[in-house]
Amino acid sequence: MGNVPTTVKHCLSYEQLIQDYPWLKRWLLEEKEIVPTGVKIQLIDMLSGTGLPVIEATSFVSSKWVPQMADHTDVLRGIQREPHVRYPVLTPNMQGFQDAVAAGATEVAVFGSASETFSKKNINCSIDESMLRFEEVIKAAKERQIPVRGYVSCALGCPLEGHIEPSKVSQVAKRLYEMGCYEISLGDTIGVGTPGSMFKMLQSVMNEVPTNALAVHCHDTYGQALPNILTALQMGVCVVDSAVAGLGGCPYAQGSSGNVSTEDVLYMLHGMGIETGVNLTKVIEAGDFICNALRRDTNSRVARARTL
Amino acid sequence: KAAGVDSTLPEKVKIVEVGPRDGLQNEKTIVPTETKIHLIDMLSASGLSVIEATSFVSPKWVPQMADQVEVMKGIGRKPGVSYPVLTPNLKGFQAAVKAGASEVAIFGAASELFSKKNINCSVEESLQRFDEVMRTAKEAGVPVRGYVSCVLGCPYEGKVAPEKVAHVAKRLYSMGCYEISLGDTIGVGTPGSMSKMLEVVSREVPVNALAVHCHDTYGQALANILVALQMGISVVDSSVAGLGGCPYAHGASGNVATEDVVYMLHGLGIQTGVDLPKLMDAGAFICRTLNRKSNSKVAQATCKL
């Protein structure tokens, strides 16, 4: 949320990133402000009124690494929890998990990578080592009957390794699922995927994880998100991640878009006669609100077209 | 042919590049003749096989295309590449042929209100006007492409019946158009409405004579194009850098960007003959000249860390 690129939210090696990419430090520290807690709470409350069933509220990553999420406890405590809406939070490790539970979290998420290099660069450990960390979290979550969602990043390509074998994605997805994640969100982290690679990757993952436990998290960096989501739907996937107003740029391509806009996804789904339970107009309003607060334009084409 | 992930996709897709005409016509800035010529030459070098070069509409109505003759005469005509031009009537057709055009295009609408508002006559009347052009073109051996606008929605009428689209497409095809480009003029279509419309139209016009011209105003263009491919369509119109805004929603995007279409097609293993880096060079050139950002996400993404 806010102006922090999605991958920085997921990535623990913030120091490493800003060391390697000086423009990122300038961008984050000099050009962008941290979004006030009140604004975050209002955004989430507005989204709660749209019919969205799941709203990822915040991240219990150390505020040393991701200052934008330092108010995680205040946010979780400040939001009006709508019944029938779930508010998962990211928890990279036991510390984060414990803080999340103390703050009232009722669902958490862990995130692995399909790319060894990306894993090492971002969270300073191999995929296997990260799985051991998550195992702890999942075990503790199970004891408290807290559902855990698993993310797999770089599912269609890695900024460092390039091509990612579908079998690697299915291995990681399978591990997370067998460890106890109820759902696995497959992320095209740098948006390079196309319906071709999406099809091949899903075919492979569906051999290991039931389709109804899969979700897709497409980035729109190359404009491919909607056709990729369409392909996933045609293959039976029925959970889609998206961000209101397309918030969250791609840190690997300065100025590029990142997350696909919830508004544009809804427009497509409704146009296909697929029910989502979500009121598009209210989502556009929430998008308007956050874009005004951030003093930036929306990334959603639907929002832009509707407000003209 | 039903649309689904099991559908056999075409091995090859022909891209009809409409940037120099549809794109530039709808840009706020009027572009100098030299720039248009250079753009078309760069596009010719990128491997595109069809590039809509200009429009022989009266400059009184479309000042951006006033240099139609100089453009036609100034471009380097690459062998194997076609440079169709718009011809709204017989006078335009004659001027086009005189300027060296060897392929032309005519326009119909699937919406009565749109037709009346835009060209001051009913759809049927507009098709009768084209009769003359068709006859003359046939005699001259000049192929004619037909466009149908508002196929997935109209800014005035709202919903447009697929049967109406099929009716107009069939008329244009029977009149002699070798190909019918179905245009989602205001970009409101989704894979749902696209597949319904194509199902109906393909009963009246062979699918290999159909093309889709999707606008990205609501971000649906690539998804709509994918569904069209799944239903057997193998001709796609697009505009380099996504030139050409939507005239009905000021500031909204219009034409889908050729770079983004090519990226998707190549990712699907479909041949287009297009060299994407060279295409992106053409896009970068025209955006620099127009002093605007590209509408192509692929172009925007190329600044890598």
UniProtKB/TrEMBL annotation, chain A:
<dbReference type="GO" id="GO:0004419">
    <property type="term" value="F:hydroxymethylglutaryl-CoA lyase activity"/>
</dbReference>
<dbReference type="Pfam" id="PF00682">
    <property type="entry name" value="HMGL-like"/>
</dbReference>
<dbReference type="GO" id="GO:0046872">
    <property type="term" value="F:metal ion binding"/>
</dbReference>
<feature type="domain" description="Pyruvate carboxyltransferase">
    <location>
        <begin position="17"/>
        <end position="284"/>
    </location>
</feature>
<dbReference type="GO" id="GO:0006552">
    <property type="term" value="P:L-leucine catabolic process"/>
</dbReference>
<comment type="pathway">
    <text>Metabolic intermediate metabolism; (S)-3-hydroxy-3-methylglutaryl-CoA degradation; acetoacetate from (S)-3-hydroxy-3-methylglutaryl-CoA: step 1/1.</text>
</comment>
<dbReference type="GO" id="GO:0046951">
    <property type="term" value="P:ketone body biosynthetic process"/>
</dbReference>
<keyword id="KW-0456">Lyase</keyword>
<dbReference type="InterPro" id="IPR043594">
    <property type="entry name" value="HMGL"/>
</dbReference>
<dbReference type="InterPro" id="IPR013785">
    <property type="entry name" value="Aldolase_TIM"/>
</dbReference>
<protein>
    <recommendedName>
        <fullName>hydroxymethylglutaryl-CoA lyase</fullName>
        <ecNumber>4.1.3.4</ecNumber>
    </recommendedName>
</protein>
<keyword id="KW-0479">Metal-binding</keyword>
<dbReference type="InterPro" id="IPR000891">
    <property type="entry name" value="PYR_CT"/>
</dbReference>
<comment type="similarity">
    <text>Belongs to the HMG-CoA lyase family.</text>
</comment>
Automatic annotation (TrEMBL), chain B:
<dbReference type="InterPro" id="IPR013785">
    <property type="entry name" value="Aldolase_TIM"/>
</dbReference>
<dbReference type="GO" id="GO:0006552">
    <property type="term" value="P:L-leucine catabolic process"/>
</dbReference>
<dbReference type="InterPro" id="IPR000891">
    <property type="entry name" value="PYR_CT"/>
</dbReference>
<keyword id="KW-0479">Metal-binding</keyword>
<dbReference type="GO" id="GO:0046872">
    <property type="term" value="F:metal ion binding"/>
</dbReference>
<dbReference type="InterPro" id="IPR043594">
    <property type="entry name" value="HMGL"/>
</dbReference>
<dbReference type="Pfam" id="PF00682">
    <property type="entry name" value="HMGL-like"/>
</dbReference>
<dbReference type="GO" id="GO:0004419">
    <property type="term" value="F:hydroxymethylglutaryl-CoA lyase activity"/>
</dbReference>
<keyword id="KW-0456">Lyase</keyword>
<dbReference type="InterPro" id="IPR000138">
    <property type="entry name" value="HMG_CoA_lyase_AS"/>
</dbReference>
<feature type="domain" description="Pyruvate carboxyltransferase">
    <location>
        <begin position="13"/>
        <end position="280"/>
    </location>
</feature>
<comment type="pathway">
    <text>Metabolic intermediate metabolism; (S)-3-hydroxy-3-methylglutaryl-CoA degradation; acetoacetate from (S)-3-hydroxy-3-methylglutaryl-CoA: step 1/1.</text>
</comment>
<protein>
    <recommendedName>
        <fullName>hydroxymethylglutaryl-CoA lyase</fullName>
        <ecNumber>4.1.3.4</ecNumber>
    </recommendedName>
</protein>
<dbReference type="GO" id="GO:0046951">
    <property type="term" value="P:ketone body biosynthetic process"/>
</dbReference>
<comment type="similarity">
    <text>Belongs to the HMG-CoA lyase family.</text>
</comment>
